[in-house]
Amino acid sequence: xxxxxxxxxxxxxxxxxxxxxxxxxxxxxxxxxxxxxxxxxxxxxxxxxxxxxxxxxxxxxxxxxxxxxxxxxxxxxxxxxxxxxxxxxxxxxxxxxxxxxxxxxxxxxxxxxxxxxxxxxxxxxxxxxxxxxxxxxxxxxxxxxxxxxxxxxxxxxxxxxxxxxxxxxxxxxxxxxx
Length: 178
Ligand code: AMP
Fold this sequence. Notes:
The protein is of the alpha/beta class. It is about 35% helix and about 35% strand. The protein has a single domain, classed as Rossmann fold. Helix 4 (about 65-75) links the parallel strand 3 (about 60) and strand 4. Helix 1 packs across helix 3. The two termini are about 15 Å apart. The site of adenosine monophosphate has 17 residues, from strand 2, strand 7 and helix 5.
């Protein structure tokens, strides 16, 4: 492990707040607020995520913490950012995808007007890779719009939940794993 990667991983470990039993019993919620509010933490994470995505010409940030990280990464790369929103937030027309959660389903949307992502090389940025359902759905949504999803990058990967296998063959980089 290079010094830089080890340093970023340690910063992430140190600056994430663990919240037991949120939003429901049995879930160990990883709160990135202290990391994002820390100048060194935000800078290091932004640089490390951007380093995984040098060939992207558009960043897609996933609702909601992926918006903050995605915009920061896009600025570093010198490209724009597209917010992938939860269902019902955007005015029509939209492209949307609905996917299964453990209980019920969820929808992600992007505008169908005002931005043409056909032919764009996209990197998806989010905070946490858990079961992988959100990332896989976002990738399908962007590809349905004609984009090529080159890779994805997250700050934290919860390996026990197997998200990496769910999103395969999409390559995901994570800065810290637990
Ligand atoms: P998943 O679709 O299960 O990979 O979940 C990914 C999304 O849910 C990410 O956008 C995360 O923000 C959020 N998420 C899932 N599990 C956690 C967790 N334990 N702590 C914080 N955020 C989580």
